[in-house]
Amino acid sequence: MFDNTTDRRVLVSVSGLKMYFPIFGGILSRHVGDVKAVDDVSFDIYEGETLGVVGESGCGKSTCGRAVLRLYDLTAGTVMVDGTDISTMGQGALRKIRPVMQMVFQDPQACLNPRMSLADIIGEPLVEHTRLSKAERRDRVYDLMDAVGLNRDFANRYPHEFSGGQRQRIGIARALALNPKFIVCDEPIAALDVSIQAQVVNLLEDLQKEFGLTYLFISHDLSMVRHIADRVAVMYLGKIVELAPREGLYRDPKHPYTQALLSAVPEPDPVTHDTANRTVLKGDVPSPSNPPTGCNFCTRCPRVMEICRQQDPEFREVEPGRFVACHLFNESETAG
Prior knowledge:
about 325 residues, alpha/beta, Rossmann fold, 4-stranded antiparallel beta sheet, 11 helices, disordered C terminus
């Protein structure tokens, strides 16, 4: 596990990231609004660590991960990866830096070409980005299969011949092909059986130790994030509301939304489960195309104040290494 006490080098730095998708309407299809999928998000990821991103479905987690890898053209903000600003890079320049940053997708079936064999799928990045000979590519593919626990005899099989867990291992092997430093894991276990999820997460941890990888791990499974992440960012309606070291966040959540989210995690002990103090949120998540005025969480927050409906709270450091976007933690505002 990553050591938070040592001096750390920032590998990925995200500042003021916005990802808006335009809405067109009317007879002339005019621009009538935006879906604010990611709205002013900032965070750093240190070399060798895993930053977990959690939140409800539709909060912008996956869009944020894809934007960080520049799979979208950003609406605003900057993204630095390994000292290089990729925010406004053209596709040609991005292609040269792609080997540094890769992605493991949620649905292993949908992201693998059904007409390509396992060896061709894993070897495709090597064809595109290297000048290895056919024999060298074959050896590299075998090494990658060994690393993710796939039998070399499977090299000429096709995706439909594998289980969900095996297909996800293929996707991980493909992501590793170019020796990346940074990998975005977009809910990599969500489509897998529960019995297989722990195997894939343990594999990701082993590969991180072996190759010195840095992860952005996106998930709605709070228990799994607690297992793998060093720090955790909690998203709500396109914004990060809390970012903290793992143990501190799970032991003492600060933001009312984080408190509600963690109170919903099932307890394995039946007695603890039945006596747990649950925070049940009222109402539905507002639309990202029409977020509330002030704090995004003000329409559902059990501790809402008048200022929450007027001003968007600043995302500020309330303790060393701990950031919260909530008016409850602004002493000058709450004192009156």
